[in-house]
């Protein structure tokens, strides 16, 4: 077990999120069990008040989780000094592969919690809590992820020992390895760049189509594109954005982008990409609910907002991704 | 019972029970039906404990009936979620309370702002609205004074200004004259008359004869033990 | 969006109206932050300095181990090591500790040689004769000795030896030079009572960092009683030790953090009658539960941010201006000379996030349920009295 301030912070954060989610789920189950929209008993009123407790708990959990995801990346980054052969977070994660799973659970939470909160917002603003069952059902699904996250984190930090010699980004993100990530790294920028440009253009066009046309089909298309864009975005970061920022044609490690030497540019890249993807997926996921008459206007209004946010966030991502290609020293070699 | 073709508020067999099932159960309202038409001045009259305040809070979307229906502007509100109910309350009703309930260590202006905070109006719009109600209530010179440090009459007018700032179509007042001397209470009734002349519906719960017998009142509903026992339309 | 700003605005106003109570919370909160961040800032600064001082250290240090303990090593071993391919140079080092009863402190004595050339002199030069020495800032201050002055130290045979001070060291790597006395190599060996032909350890310079491990293995094979230590190993040990120490401190502090969270809970649940009435008014004039909840959350955010900033500033002053008087005895061990240390101010954004996680997260989590309890006040409560 490594007693490191960042590790302690993560464990405290993880424990707090689990506590919030467990309390939230228990209250949610209580609400589900006795929920009776036709009744105006004091019991029903008390349950309605509790829905606010659940939203507050999950809302706070989401914020902690966003902070925690970034803190985890940075802690892995900071820990690499403890390992022989580790030069960045990749090395720390390889020192105990459970780390990659922690990364996955954190990613899942950061992607799923906003969906829940959006659903919750609709439910509260509509007149008669139309999706209350769906909402608390989902919550019960989310809680185990938070629990898994905490358990995996404990396992990860218990399992890493400073004397482990680990392989680093050099082998994982190099062009000669046999990992998926090395395949990504070896995609020539000449091919990856046009693909990224094309995908971005399609995505933005679909967003605009959904934003202004607001046809159900367009929302669906955008929601399907969103995870694809997430994948392409991350692949592009590994394939050429990182390279362009480091100005080293062979260095593909995305984690170095989170280091001070890259001016922490990884944070805006990741935050804007995730924001764009999540808010693009929301309308498609929640649009089917709009068939209920009491949600119709609300959903339409929110959809507009989410799509606008998505366009804005993706534009920010594009700026950060393309900046080093245009203004960096390595740009010409890649083109 | 007077009711127009499209009543602004309709109350249908409404009951309100507090602590239901408990030994200290209180049946504050027992099956009241009535309606309020736009532009009316209605008085709910009765001694304390007659259920008039409970009825008032249900009409004003402040609490939900235990059974029965309340509809505002044709929309049934009894089973609405809190957010939806609050949004109707905010946009349709203005409240004047017996004890005024101003926040004493907040300025007159800030007190008036409170109902607008959750509406998301622009700061400019908020300023304009405050300016307008301050002018209407002759409070411009008191704008920045703390609400706890102004005279009783000014406090009364601040409370009215706060009730009007969201431009309600219905103003609800609970025992508004209970703590006022006759000069202040007639000043308040003048304000109500003025509001009503401009089309605002006014509902007052009171047992103060100065209000009950005032010429602005269109209709009186007599309540005893949670039930309507009489109706007068002078 | 606007709605959120309006509610934030109102939260600020309502915090201002209860100035006394809120400053009391901020004071306790900020104190918690100060303690936590002092620990982190100090260990981080020491870690940085340790890394700094190792920059000039040899790639490989060779010790001899007898019975699992560090023992003097024969100087002639350097000749064998120097012949290994890849080795640039192998030099004996003489260093050790001496207790000085006059100033009641422990002093590090080092023989001038490899490594000491990197030490930054403020004034003067390194010793060239056996009667000369150069001292660190801490020793200089304790003895009131400047260049040209004298110090008397007790050697291994408990004889007082007089040395002329010919140089003093600069501050950036305080941790190394503060309690330092540098003598000539031979004099240091004599002073420390090392038998002739024996050194404390050996410093080995290696041209290609990739060969360090191979050469270490070869040395170990040639001299089974030796213990070669690579520089990166030392770095990692420093890292691990200091992380461990700050982690231990924080683990001990976690009791305090829990107490703090309980206080937060208590503060949030203990709504005054006045506040309760105020929330009732808000609800009555058109705020819904979510609005009040947001108001309470904003209040928490404002209190957290204020306390975090104040606590951080206090910690920066405590650690970098005052030299962390509250923590040094625990974190830095035994030397009384150490507290003189003034670490180079260094603020890492990562540290700030860690600090926020250790303090804000428990606070916010503790206030959710009480805030909700306050927010569900019935709107008609003000009418029903």
Describe the model:
The complex is a heterotrimer of chains A (335), B (234) and C (385). Chain A has 2 domains: 1-167; 172-335, no CATH class. In chain A, 77% of the residues lie in helices and 0% in strands. Chain A contains 12 helices and no strands. Chain A has helices at residues 5-34, 42-79, 89-95, 98-125, 132-159, 169-172, 180-186, 189-213, 216-246, 266-286, 293-327, 331-334. In chain A, helix 2 crosses helix 3. Chain B is α/β, with parallel strands linked by helices and 234 residues long. Chain B contains 7 helices and 10 strands. Chain B is globular, with a radius of gyration of 18 Å. Chain B starts with 8 loop residues before the first strand and ends with a strand. With 385 residues, chain C is α+β, with helices and mostly antiparallel strands. Chain C has 2 domains: 2-53 and 242-384, no CATH class; 58-231, no CATH class. Chain C contains 13 helices and 14 strands. Chain C has helices at residues 2-17, 19-54, 77-83, 137-143, 174-177, 185-192, 212-222, 231-269, 273-284, 289-321, 328-332, 349-375, 381-384, and strands at 60-66, 69-71, 73-74, 87-93, 95-100, 105-111, 121-124, 132-135, 150-154, 160-169, 180-183, 198-199, 201-206, 226-230. In chain C, helix 2 (19-54) runs antiparallel to helix 8 (231-269), helix 2 (19-54) packs antiparallel against helix 12 and helix 10 runs antiparallel to helix 12. The longest helix of chain C is centred in the middle third of the chain and has 39 residues, at 231-269. Chain C is elongated. Chains in contact: A-B, A-C, B-C. The A-C interface holds A 2-10, 12-13, 16, 19-20, 23, 49, 52-53, 55-57, 60, 64, 67-68, 70-71, 74-75, 78, 81-84, 124, 162, 260, 264 and C 39-40, 43, 232, 235-236, 239-240, 243-244, 246-248, 250-251, 254, 257, 289-290, 293, 297, 349-351, 353-358, 361-362, 364-365, 368-369, 371-372, 375-376.
